[in-house]
Specification:
Calcineurin-like_PHP; 5 helices; 6-stranded mixed beta sheet; hydrolase; Metallophosphoesterase; binds fe (ii) ion; iron; 5-stranded mixed beta sheet; Purple Acid Phosphatase, chain A, domain 2; alpha/beta; CNP_phosphodiesterase-III
Length: 259
């Protein structure tokens, strides 16, 4: 069995708040909860949008917070990340690509691929030929589970569907043709959803930081107000090809709210 803690979108800042929330308080609460209740997990995946605007300072302090984890941490990039700043402070496994923050984690029963869907200068996602080629080369005969920041389909969520993975067709063509990919675990949308894409199941996750509201009442970025919902992380079990995902609240909504 492989047990994984899945967290996403901490939007960590070394100072100040984001949308009225102290992201340091939230990340500490998540790590403390994980250490207290899930120190038996094999590893934790943090699926992107790690920092705010102070790239060097945010990544430096984020690394200190993540060092408190009792289990190995695999960080990924999202639209708000910076590959150079990320690499300066966070370590990657030896399977990582040279130019992209994309890598493979092997366990006895499965392969876990952490993909880089970052597009420089955009909040939408990208999966270029180099990343596709790497993915093709890392699809083996073992069951494969994919973590990625941007969803490769529209999720019927306001505004966020405009910043999904832009070149989703080539990605989906590849994973559907090969057949090993059993599940997609997706960040970015700050809200739990699940479904299938071309028959492959997927799940998204609420953020460690602020939560996106439900699609109705309709909202846009000008009217955006985070939902007053508590954050959660995912507890994933993969055993004999079966997958379960427990959405796990780790603190009350009020934790870290400053305005
Ligand atoms: Fe985010």
């Amino acid at each position: 069995m492989t047990k994984i803690i899945w967290m996403t979108d901490p939007h960590f800042q070394n100072d100040g708040t984001i949308r009225g929330l102290n992201p340091r308080t939230r990340l500490k609460a998540a790590i403390d909860h994980m250490n207290a209740h899930h120190a038996d997990a094999d590893f934790m995946v943090l699926s992107g949008d790690l920092v705010g605007d102070d790239i060097a300072g945010d990544y430096r302090m984020l690394a200190e917070y993540l060092a408190q984890s009792r289990i190995p941490v695999y960080p990924m990039v999202g639209n708000n990340d910076d590959r150079q700043g990320f690499r300066a402070q966070l370590s990657l496994p030896p399977t990582a690509m040279a130019d992209f923050i994309q890598y493979r984690i092997d366990t006895p029963e499965a392969v876990f691929l952490c993909l880089d869907t970052h597009m420089v200068g955009s909040h939408a996602g990208q999966f270029c030929q180099a990343r596709l080629d790497w993915l093709r080369g890392n699809l083996t005969d073992k069951p494969t589970y994919v973590f990625m920041h941007h969803p490769p389909l529209a999720l019927h969520l306001p505004k966020q569907d405009e910043i999904k993975l832009a070149d989703d067709a080539a990605f989906l063509d590849l994973i559907c043709n090969e057949g090993q990919v059993k599940y997609l675990f997706i960040g970015h949308v700050h809200r739990p959803t699940c479904g299938t894409v071309r028959g492959i199941p997927f799940a998204t996750l609420g953020a460690i930081s602020f939560q996106a509201p439900a699609p109705q009442p309709a909202w846009d970025w000008d009217s955006f107000t985070p939902a007053a919902e508590a954050p959660h992380y995912g507890v994933l079990y993969v055993e004999h090809g079966d997958v379960t995902l427990q959405y796990t609240q780790f603190c009350p909504y009020e934790t870290g709210i400053e305005s």
